[in-house]
């Protein structure tokens, strides 16, 4: 049995706002028809940004990096090394296959990288350097030949740290360009931006809607929603740590759900008290406070089994486990984007530095998909070869029967012909 020690103040919005959808449709259509001119018009309108070229030159990139403290550069390099290391471990787990499944029947698959990827790196309230690490570095490890990256200007200027992160991650082209116009330019192409095969990266509601509308014309990584965190805690958990970690994710945005599921009423109530104490001193308290007020929950359950059940029901983007038996959760939990085990681990490590990818499923999508990984930038394609006339005859006869059961006479005749040729003749309809 479960009961709420704190409930949400309002339900999360799960449908795309009509105004957002309509506005995005208009921008995409304008970029499709007007190319660079439309992109420039929207950049001026939304970001007051209209440089001679949105694409940065090598000189501009070098200048941006030179303006940064050496420590910032060193930290970017270290984090990207962590991301690259894990991506390479993932790549090593992926193998091409080829097997002779019957005499002379060869089946196989190969994993081929996507040719070109567009990485959208958010700016605005938070310039997400980490998204450059996660997307560009991982795509390059996968073997993507052309990765272009875009990010919005910051207060009418080049965002130096984001540019450095994109460059050091291996971006082949860097554009200071934000919003729907950037996603549209990469997806449909303009006079100065060659289209890509896939778009990856988080963004606001407009960017997310642009990816949704363009999906099919280009591939996308995920349909992204607000950041989510769910913490499972028993009576061994430290309420202060729980409170800090809930707030760390709540500051992503005012619509970010932050949920605690606990078997201990004391831990639940002490966590609420700690959040109330910590919030006023948090520099992002307006955002985090709104998220906690409107989308924060503390759920008391009778057993750890019920806590696991609630967690799988929510299928949260991030799940943290503060219990006495951490590995029990690893074995039994099913629905999550990423799992963080123990007090010495936190979601923010995954967000920023540890090396696993932070582009993860939200809004229950963890029930059917995982997050961004090196395999997302690969296409697994199959091939077939038959070297045996006898096997071709057997398959041809089988195809003839199977296809005619579905009224596909043309398919059946493809099988008839090969079966007959294997016997040294031609089918009656071909004579």
From TrEMBL:
NAD(+) binds at residues 120, 181, 204. Keywords: Amino-acid biosynthesis, Histidine biosynthesis, Metal-binding, NAD, Oxidoreductase, Zinc. CDD domains: Histidinol_dh. GO terms for cellular component: cytosol. Transmembrane segments: none annotated. Belongs to the histidinol dehydrogenase family. The active site is at residues 317-318. Zn(2+) binds at residues 249, 252, 351, 411. One of its GO terms (molecular function) is NAD binding. This is Histidinol dehydrogenase. Binds 1 zinc ion per subunit. GO terms for biological process: L-histidine biosynthetic process. Pathway: Amino-acid biosynthesis; L-histidine biosynthesis; L-histidine from 5-phospho-alpha-D-ribose 1-diphosphate: step 9/9. PANTHER family: HISTIDINOL DEHYDROGENASE (PTHR21256:SF14), HISTIDINOL DEHYDROGENASE HDH (PTHR21256). It comes from Mycolicibacterium confluentis. The keyword Metal-binding applies. Catalyzes the sequential NAD-dependent oxidations of L-histidinol to L-histidinaldehyde and then to L-histidine. The keyword Oxidoreductase applies. Its cofactor is Zn(2+). Pfam families: Histidinol_dh. Substrate binds at residues 227, 249, 252, 318, 351, 406, 411.
